[in-house]
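Today's session is about reading a structure prediction critically. Students often jump straight to the picture, but the first step is always the sequence itself: look for stretches that repeat, for charged clusters, for runs of hydrophobic residues. Only then move on to the predicted structure, which in these notes is written as discrete structure tokens rather than atom positions. Here is the chain we will use throughout the hour.
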Amino acid sequence: MIPHSKIALDEEDIAAVIKVLRSGQLAQGRVVSSLEEKSASLIGVKHAAAVSSGSAALHLSLIALGIDEKSEVILPSYVCTALVNAINYLRATPVLVDIDPHTFNSTGESIKGAITDNTKAVIVPHMFGLPADIESIVPLGIPVIEDCAHSIGATVNGRKAGSFGLVSILSFYATKMLGAGEGGMVLSNDRGLIETIKDLRDYDEKEDYRVRFNYKLTDIQAALAATRLSKLPEFIDKRKKIAAIYNRGLERVGVGLPEEPEGREHIYYRYVILVENSAQFMHEMLKKGIECRRPVFKPLHRYLSQSGYPLTDEVWERAVSIPIYPSLTVEEAHRIVDAIKMII
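Below is the predicted structure for this chain, in token form.
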């Protein structure tokens, strides 16, 4: 069986964690601070705050931006529920927009049409490793949270995704780009915003009272994330090589292939194709020993009983994510191509 996702740890990863265990400093400490500095340097911003997950990063970012029950926050429907959860934690109103069916991202045009006097933020996920057209979104004048959970290391015209908005977030979850188990990061050039998030992530030994959270990252998790971060260029290179095999092998097969608009680097967190019957396709692939998944289990508008998102619906009904990760072998990639050809 070729699994849809797979994490491969090496001796350097294991040694980094053991070093922290032997140090006796397991909770948030110097290793977390070092990871913050490395993450900010990678993205090209001045400040960073490590937290316990990508969801925590979103939640605290919204609080720091002053989002409350009177606020509207724009986001695409074609994302996982973590984003709408963070908005609902604050009893704000999620305002969904449709997507570009070729890139699976929200667009400046779709976001512009959803802006009202109550719009206080827009969350822009860079889906599946391909950055959104962030350069058309930032000028709209709404505070932008870039969700780089899928796209750490990707660039837009040579500039790192995550460096355009007022704030950006990363996820270190087990099946994300770094695959470090759990953890997240908030990044910004706004020092005050990051200081607010650092205050909110820990509730103890404060001079005043406000609702704060236990959203700290441990040095154990940070040590693993740091070693994985150092390997990110290698991970991206391997993903691109597998994607090239897929691009060549599936070019004339009759499936919709990923697009990479000029200036926007695709790092292939997911390799998403469009087929006529996604459920049947995944069933047939599983029979051949290859696990595929819906890249988004269900669009948000379907959870929220809304309608009017035809492009999202079209993509959701046809989209399939096929295996792509650094430990996938060339032989396995060709086996996947051959299986798709037989099914299609």
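Discussion point for the tutorial: The chain has a mean pLDDT of 97.
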